[in-house]
Automatic annotation (TrEMBL):
Gene3D superfamilies: Tetratricopeptide repeat domain (1.25.40.10). Pfam families: PPR (PF01535), PPR_long (PF17177). This is Pentatricopeptide repeat-containing protein. Belongs to the PPR family. P subfamily. PPR repeats lie at residues 180-214, 250-284.
């Protein structure tokens, strides 16, 4: 009995991203989708050779799903996570090159994807690169307040730089873009942290003059910078004003006064704010009590610790260290 010749079994290979060019008659010539998928396949091979398994595996899985669904026009959406991963891994140049590659093959990229890349760059302290990309691509994505706010947030909160933040703020006028409430909030809070009273009040008044209503967060920052710079009366007046406006002061509002008052050893004013805090049904935090413990005498320390327990603030190790 003659046995059938069996081909030797081979180990199955991991799935690769390919175009369905084996189906004769369906694809007479390479389409744009075929070219895009070929570029992704080559990129995947490059990542494999450099042992970047996580990026390669994620990219393969995302685009295989798109292939099985027949979504060849999903390249832009599928490559967005890859761009963000590059930015998160501090691979700034590769993240931007991936974005340029989409435009090269005429893949439409919406503003949401573009802003997501800018946020990822700023989040990983590549604010300068994000700003350059924003200005370079203004022919494709017109300059808008939202884009500038992303860069401004990077210079104010993620990688703080007063000079750069002021330059970006001047850029709003240079490119005929009107700052919005978010723009003013970023700058006012940033200057308040630096205890820059002049610029904080200047932008606060400009914000109101242009019709933007300051939020409680903005008021908290102004109260903090006023108290820090010794304008105690003005800080109390603003605190009473925001309550008259219907805003409910929170823990951050009262701490914005108590912490700098304790730092300046102005115990009487700090205790007055604590009374207002209690009348407003706001519970002090551990940070609040620590600021007071630093400046009171030894007898008052134990009283404060008892009050901490009454308000549900359990003393921590640092609490007892501050006593000595």
């Amino acid at each position: 009995m003659t046995g059938e010749n069996k081909s030797p079994q081979t180990k199955p290979k991991s799935p690769r991203i390919t175009t369905p060019d084996s189906d004769a008659g369906l694809f007479c010539s390479p389409t744009r989708a075929d070219i895009e998928f070929e570029q992704v396949r080559r990129s995947q091979d490059c990542w494999d050779r450099n042992h970047k398994w996580s990026v390669s595996r994620a990219l393969r899985t995302e685009l295989l799903n798109a292939t099985f669904l027949g979504l060849y026009n999903a390249c832009s959406t599928s490559l967005l996570p890859c761009k963000i991963r590059y930015a998160s891994a501090n691979e700034t140049e590769k993240a931007i090159k991936t974005f340029h590659a989409l435009e090269k093959f005429n893949v439409e990229v919406d503003s949401a994807a573009f802003y997501a890349l800018l946020r990822a760059l700023c989040k990983n302290k590549n604010t300068q690169e994000a700003e350059e990309l924003l200005l370079t691509k203004r022919g494709f994505f017109p300059l808008e307040t939202a884009g500038f706010n992303i860069v401004l947030d990077g210079w104010c909160n993620i990688f703080p730089d007063e000079t750069e933040a002021k330059r970006v703020l001047e850029g709003y006028g240079k490119y005929c873009i009107a700052p919005d409430a978010t723009s003013y909030t970023h700058m006012i809070c940033f200057f308040a942290k630096l205890r820059n009273l002049f610029d904080s009040l200047r932008l606060y008044n400009e914000m109101k003059r242009r019709g933007w209503v300051p939020s409680l967060k903005v008021h908290n920052c102004i109260i903090y910078v006023l108290t820090s710079e010794g304008c105690i009366k003005e800080a109390f007046n603003l605190l009473n004003k925001i309550m008259a406006l219907g805003l409910q002061p929170d823990l951050k509002t009262y701490n914005s006064m108590i912490l700098p008052l304790c730092e300046a050893h102005r115990l009487d004013e700090a205790r007055e704010v604590m009374k207002m805090m209690s009348s407003g049904s706001v519970r002090p935090s551990v940070e609040t009590y620590h600021a007071l413990i630093k400046i009171v005498n030894s007898e008052a320390v134990f009283e404060l610790i008892d009050r901490m327990r009454e308000h549900g603030c359990r003393p921590v190790a640092n609490t007892y260290l501050l006593m000595f």
